[in-house]
Automatic annotation (TrEMBL):
Lineage summary: Eukaryota, Metazoa, Chordata, Craniata, Vertebrata
Xref: InterPro entries: Cadherin-like_dom, Cadherin-like_sf, Cadherin_N, Protocadherin/Cadherin-CA
Membrane topology qualifier: Single-pass membrane protein
Keywords: Calcium, Cell adhesion, Glycoprotein, Membrane, Signal, Transmembrane, Transmembrane helix
The protein's name: Protocadherin gamma-A12
GO MF annotations in UniProt: calcium ion binding
UniProt GO BP: homophilic cell adhesion via plasma membrane adhesion molecules
Biological source species: Neovison vison
Length: 122
């Protein structure tokens, strides 16, 4: 329900809204911390649960989840640059953070940096 709400409301999201940007290397392990979403939204961590926070992403599996105790955005699964971006030079994942109590949507752009794990050998 929350992801569907995010997709529907995401279409109403204004392009001029401020976005949160994170940059991370590819192939991080499940459970790795990406950033403090509560702090970046100007909230105390305990407010995330009170305000009904949710994460929605388009076209990908649910890769990120909020930690309601710390306010951090956590990897729910392994991120593989080649798999997600199919060799594009610039890989960006677009997420939406939803706060249900005020029906607010915040854009999050996650840039996945290729660490070139497949180095050619000569």
């Amino acid at each position: 329900g929350l992801v569907l709400l995010g997709v529907l409301l995401g279409n109403l999201w204004e392009t001029g809204c401020a976005q949160i940007h994170y940059s991370l290397p590819e192939e991080l392990e499940k459970g790795s911390r990406m950033g403090n979403i509560a702090k970046d939204l100007g909230l105390e961590p305990q407010k995330l649960e009170e305000r009904g926070v949710g994460i929605a992403s388009r076209g990908t599996t649910q890769l990120f989840t909020p930690n309601l105790q710390s306010g951090s955005l956590i990897f729910a699964g392994r991120v593989d640059w080649e798999e997600l971006c199919m060799g594009l030079l610039k890989c960006q994942l677009n997420l939406e953070v939803l706060l249900e109590d005020k029906v607010k949507i915040y854009g999050v752009v996650v840039e996945v940096r290729d660490i070139n794990s497949n180095v050619p050998y000569f």
